[in-house]
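User: Please run a holo structure prediction.
Assistant: Happy to. Please share the sequence and the ligand.
User: Here you go; the ligand is NAP.
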Amino acid sequence: MGQNVLITGTGRKQALGYNLVLRYLEQGDTVFAGVRKPSGALDALQAEYPETLHILTMDIGSTTSVEAAIQTVAAEVPCVDLLINNAVMVSPDYDKTLEQANLDYIAGVVDVDAVGPLRVVKAMLPLLRKSKAALIVNISSEAGSIGRCYRTNMIDYGMAKAALNMATMVLRNTFRDEENLNAICIQPGWMRTNDGNAAAPLIPYDHAELLRLLFEERRRDKEGDAFITYEGEAYPW
Ligand SMILES: NC(=O)c1ccc[n+]([C@@H]2O[C@H](COP(=O)([O-])OP(=O)(O)OC[C@H]3O[C@@H](n4cnc5c(N)ncnc54)[C@H](OP(=O)(O)O)[C@@H]3O)[C@@H](O)[C@H]2O)c1
């Protein structure tokens, strides 16, 4: 029997979340695919995997929405073995520098991209704790590395991903004495997830399989590096 997987932000066919959903379904796993609005791509996939794909309406910016969604998961399965916090948003001023950007956008981005994953983890704790070996993967970015920061733009995104990295360490500390619970964050590399990323080297469908295998390898590794690249190397915080 396969594992139970929940992935957030999965409605776009070209993006990472959808391709992770597809890879886990191909393995025979049961997948809860989070979306904040209906997705034609996921509806089509459900026709192929009617038993194992559950589409889950969940806005990670809303505690009420997250709690309601996780209640429906708990009605379907006794545990969740893998949570991938993949959803992300940026503000319209994402590309702007300090002088140009409206700084009042930043808190909203941090609320979705860093607090959102913690909302999902908190609501799912009973389900994760019932797994024999649960892993939480927070999809971060090189933009969240303080040590490697070179940009003067992407202030909202960079701050949000740095906060997500901190949240990952808090989770690791929280689960220190729980053998069956682990958390990592990952710098997934530059992927061709939308038309603006056409020059990116990594193809989401191929890359999703590489990430799936990496997550399996790191599932029980509580002592190793917590912020890693898609090649499994440590990345600077
Ligand atoms: N693409 C890259 O090269 C790259 C590089 C480094 C890191 N990453 C990270 O990898 C992950 C996937 O990237 P991507 O490019 O595939 O992302 P993407 O195409 O921007 O997709 C993000 C998804 O998150 C969803 N989302 C946004 N706000 C949400 C909310 N409040 N509640 C629930 N879902 C929400 C979006 O939903 P809608 O469809 O409804 O808008 C969208 O489907 C992200 O965490 C990103 O930061 C990507």
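The pocket of NAP is lined by residues 8-9, 11-12, 15-17, 34, 36-37, 59-61, 86-89, 112, 139, 141, 188, 190-191, 193-194, 197, 200 (CB under 6 Å).
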